[in-house]
């Protein structure tokens, strides 16, 4: 048995990072829920309350500006608007561009663009160092953030995607109103079987 961890990089999915959105619940430390401003604090509190109610999860809710130490656990980032792109990872399959919208690189390398619109939201996993995860819960406006926050996993063992882009059409169409949903492969690329409008 080798204890060599040199092969473990952020660009490769391994260990407790594997799985759908509910992989965020497999954390080695306290789950950190961060929010950038007072507009998103209510959603962050609701997520923490639901996680405590359903899983008795130990969560810490913090303002993004006041984070002073590195968390040992997974992170849920609640973000609204197009200005804060600090959570973007260069060359990652899902990217927010502050002046244009959400861009997703599909399994063939083609870029799909979802322009900013009322009710646009997204929820997706991102890798962090030390086998940790970050769940981004993002909305272009308050409505989009509320739609996306409803997709934070509250049940384990059910089929879920690794990423979902929602629109206001989800209100009357359900899952058919989603603009994109699917899974990431072992290298955090969008899998070929993912749905992208």
Highlighted features:
197 residues, alpha/beta, 8-stranded mixed sheet, 3-stranded antiparallel sheet, 3 helices, 15% helix, 28% strand
Structural topology:
Elements: E1 31-35, H1 38-55, E2 59-63, E3 75-80, E4 94-97, E5 101-105, E6 111-115, E7 121-128, E8 132-139, H2 142-149, E9 163-166, H3 170-173, E10 180-182, E11 195-196
Parallel strand pairs: 1-2, 1-3, 3-8
Antiparallel strand pairs: 4-5, 5-6, 7-8, 7-9, 9-10, 10-11
Characterize the structure shown.
It is globular and about 40 Å long. Helices cover 15% and strands 28% of the residues. The strands form two sheets. The protein has an eight-stranded mixed sheet with strand order 2-1-3-8-7-9-10-11, with helices on one face. With 197 residues, the protein is of the alpha/beta class. Strand 1 (31-35), helix 1 and strand 2 form a beta-alpha-beta unit. 37% of the residues are buried. Helix 1 (38-55) runs parallel beside helix 2. It starts with 30 loop residues before the first strand and ends with a strand.
